[in-house]
Known about the structure:
By secondary structure, the chain is an alpha+beta fold. The protein is built from 9 helices and 11 strands.
Amino acid sequence: MITVSAPGKLMLMGEHAVVYGYPCIVTAVDQRLYVRAKKTDDGKITVDAPQSKETKFVDAAVAKFFVWRSQIPLRGTKGVSVKHHGVSLSIRSDFTSQVGFGSSSAVSVATIKALSLVFAIPMTEREIFDVAYQVTLDIQGVGSGFDIAAAVYGGTLFFKKGGEVIEPLPNEIPLVVGYTGVKADTPTLINMVAAKQKEYPGKVNKIFSAIGELVLQGRDALVTKDWERLGKLMNFDQEYLRDLGVSSQKLEDLISAAKKAGAWGAKLSGAGGGDCMIALHSAGGKPQITKAIQEAGGQVMDVRTHAEGVRSESEL
Ligand code: MEV
């Protein structure tokens, strides 16, 4: 029996534009999803996931793992065929799929890593990323893969679509995270932005390019821990996201409450429409911002950024 865990994520800057090839910054959070895996002799794959209604990402991750396995030369298994074995998987998570922390990406990554350990087939981080990204594309049809990268590599990453660039960045980020109570549907929002880009390519492409520029400046501010500057850049990013039409009244209420309470900057995080907002706080500023977000109707999620990527919790 082995247990593997993968972290959730928060997008710091660059959402939506990242789908069009511009960079983004994502950080892994210390809320984790756990997959326990046990080899069985019955040749069956069973999945127990009491916290979720469906297991399509786990099922697809298992299928993609075996496709990948069939395409690589034998390694690690000392000639043992994985075909004769089944596996039972049991999933548990610190966070629900409602909050937008990336439960689908975390479960895909943790499942693939768990299978590689159970069947003793070593996989590099890059291989886990590539196989798990295929799961996202198969099921959602769209997505940059930034959430998969956060689950695999952890920490904070400067990222480009499909893993064209995956560059680790230093430093934990002082964030307060406010949940709107509304579940966002990422593929719908991505498609909505795509429709807008088709209708107004000049305007929308300019927004993407401006967001990309902000991300480059945000990377420098983050590396030098210039939080005041990073906050301003996040505020500009939020203005562009509002122009794209992906913000919501609830997000705006929480963002403006956080800013009034002294946040360096605040913005939505992820696809928009709901899910979470993030506020960058100064050394002593966390309690006031927390209170302001709560008073504006948000649920504050107690998370730390820069968490470790996928890892084995135990091996028995
Ligand atoms: C969603 O959390 C972030 C988007 O940029 C989609 C993606 O990058 O896959 C909207």
